[in-house]
Design goal:
Length: 332
């Protein structure tokens, strides 16, 4: 959620927000960000994703950090980390594409025409069986390769860029290419350069930079550098549609209530039934992930009913005051 996103929403109703509760998403303190923020880490080759998270916990002295999308030990690149309650938001990143730059070797020297034919063959929807050393059941499944190109070729060495669906095994992709070629192919090195909207070119944070920035904050109380490395959790939802709700509806949602029409203030244009949305306060804070049960037109015309089905609560309960009523217990 950004201020620009808020401005582009369709207004259903108006209300005011009480500044005594919550915090504008882009005005959080460093203490708040450390328990409700995102770090887009540049994972080094060598450690597992789990080890990388463990090191980050020790650096930031936090008990809870999670990652989105496991990288094999020797793979480097974009690894989004959720700090504290921000781990609840990481699942949405698995819905978006991943981009990799892979260096591999083909065991024969095909012509440029043959190589172009092979690359074309492995674009679109492909069948793929996970490798033996994988954390998932080894069943053949389909994955989509959105873009696949050879950036450089030096004899039998290939540098390729692959934009693909989450869960695609690039090492297996090279192996399958080699099977089609005949003599085989092997992936040598792999780097992830994009996870959904988070790209390598936007600037990644290394473990050393993070450790230095945290130490500077602890020693001098200067949080400038550390704050530049932690993003609001709302940035994870920037590729999905949005809903803004009344302050009075926030705590009810945080306690499990479904979002009804009277609680809705703004929605994304062209909202369709079944769309995944981020639910926000008027201050731009993420409250939950939900699925729309109505279209934009239906929401604008309706006066009652449930408009969204909650999928995941992000905000902690009692952040906003309770302004909802429970049904009285019938007397015996």
């Amino acid at each position: 959620m950004t201020l620009k996103q808020l401005e582009n929403l369709v207004e259903i109703d108006q209300d005011f927000t009480d500044d005594a509760y919550g915090t504008y998403y882009d005005k959080r303190t460093i203490e708040q960000l450390l328990h409700y923020g995102l770090i887009i880490l540049d994972k080094p080759p060598g450690p597992t994703s789990h080890e990388t998270v463990a090191w980050t916990k020790r650096i930031l002295k936090l008990p809870k950090i999670g990652h989105s999308g496991t990288l094999d030990p020797q793979v480097s690149g974009v690894l989004p980390l959720g700090l504290g309650d921000a781990t609840k938001a990481l699942g949405v990143l698995l819905l978006g594409p991943k981009e990799y730059h892979a260096l591999g070797r083909v065991h024969s020297l095909p012509s440029k025409e043959k190589m172009a034919e092979i690359i074309e063959m492995f674009q679109g929807e492909i069948f793929q069986k996970p490798p033996q050393r994988s954390a998932v059941v080894r069943q053949t499944r389909t994955r989509s390769i959105y873009e696949f190109e050879v950036l450089q070729q030096k004899e039998r060495l290939l540098l390729t860029r692959i934009l693909c669906e989450a869960g695609t095994y690039i090492r297996k992709l090279y192996y399958d290419m080699g099977e089609v070629l005949g003599p085989g192919a092997t992936m040598i090195e792999l780097r992830r350069t994009r996870v959904d909207q988070f790209r390598e070119t936007d600037g990644l944070v290394t473990l050393h930079e993070l450790a230095n920035a945290f130490a500077l904050w602890e020693e001098t109380k200067d949080a400038t550098k550390l704050m530049s490395m932690i993003q609001p959790v709302e940035h994870a939802f920037s590729e999905i549609k949005s809903v803004v709700i009344r302050d009075s509806a926030v705590d009810a949602m945080c306690h499990g209530a479904q979002l009804a029409i009277p609680g809705v203030l703004k929605i994304s244009p062209n909202l369709k039934k079944g769309d995944l949305v981020g639910v926000y306060t008027q201050k731009g804070e993420a409250v939950a992930l939900a699925e729309s049960t109505m279209s934009e037109e239906q929401i604008r015309d309706a006066t009652k009913g449930y408009a969204f089905e909650t999928k995941r609560i992000i905000m902690a309960p009692n952040t906003y005051p309770k302004k909802w009523r429970t049904k009285p217990t019938p007397k015996e």
